[in-house]
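Bumping with the actual sequence this time:
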Amino acid sequence: MSEKSSPSSMQHISPTTLCSLPHRLNYTLSFLNLDPSIDGQAITRSAALLGPLLPTILDAVYTKLLSYDITAKAFLSPLPSPSLSPPNHATTPPPPQNPQQLHLTHAHILRQKTFLKAYLLRIATNEDWSPNSKLWQYMDGIAVAHTGVHRGGKKMKADLRVEYMHLGLLLGYVEDILITAVMDAKEEEGWDGAVKRDVLRAWNMVLWVQNDLFARRFVVDRDTGEGVREDDGARKGGWGVGVLGLVVGMVMIGVLTMLMGRI
């Protein structure tokens, strides 16, 4: 796993290019060593396992989010932009006035579950893993939707603002659920150690890409400067934090590989 670098083989990455989504993804996917022929197929294979578990996964995620007022209060805001809504979505229910009114069967939470379900299915059914894939545009849009700013730089009528800390914790919690689900899969159904390893490594990569896209929208670094914007008006930055996240992601990939007996 260790590749020695020399001045002649070292790639140059300009911080300013990381404000461009395709350039950023070209770097992050290269850093994480995402291989579409292996990791893309592993994600696709996981759909058969995770599909039937989606109701349980959704309940676990929203039970966790409703366990703390600081995360539950996000559901007092209107839902994200219609452009991010799942197909055939129903009319948006009005938000409650108090987070204590929320529960798993509340109309607003049921509506929220459709977003997370669509998000997981969008990843699991993705076919294009190139830096220009529409999947990354979709995931970047998810990040924008939680900043309280519409594309075009306009503030939402009522803020849907979830701080980066809580988004990162949620990704960690989702990954823990995925690890448990995959590790519990039965070997006699085709889920041997090698398959589990590949699926976990692939999902780990994708979730760390999502983490970096959250950083892109929430964190401003010294190299790109505060207030750097593109055509959609949302703030760019966070590549420094993003790099640290990629390093952690690579460490996780290494740990998973070692634990599954590849090294």
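The tokens above came from a reply further down the thread. Residues 61 and 173 are 8 Å apart (CA to CA).
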